[in-house]
Amino acid sequence: MWGGEWISQWTFDYASKQLSGNIKLRNHYFESGNIQFNLHKEFASVAVKTTDGRGIVDAIKDVETKVSVDF
Fold first, then answer.
1. According to DSSP H, which parts of the chain are helical?
2. Per-residue confidence (pLDDT) for residue 32, from 0 to 100
3. Which residues contact 25 (CB under 8 A, 6 or more apart)?
4. What is the pLDDT of residues 22-68, one digit of tens each?
């Protein structure tokens, strides 16, 4: 059995056109033992192609997809 959660928080500053945020990942796997994995990763400056809603969402999606693929 396993369980877990992915929590991310992002802030976009329109004045500087910078996206920043963090991801907290917690995973718990238990079968014939107990394994836990915890990750907290900060992102100070993320590139945003366009400052409309779609551009901001796409930038977040790109970062979160890369994080999930790296594991």
1. 53-69
2. 80
3. 4, 5, 6, 7, 37, 38, 39, 40, 41, 67
4. 999 999 988 888 899 899 999 999 989 999 999 999 999 999 998 87
Class of residue 59 by CB neighbours under 10 A (exposed 0-12, middle 13-18, buried 19+): buried
Identify the pLDDT of residue 62: 93
Domain that holds residue 58: 2-69
Quote the tokens at residue 36.
Answer: 């836990």
Give the count of domains, the chain: 1
- Would you say the pTM of this structure is higher than 0.90? no
- Separation between Cα atoms, residue 37 and residue 6, nearest integer Å: 12
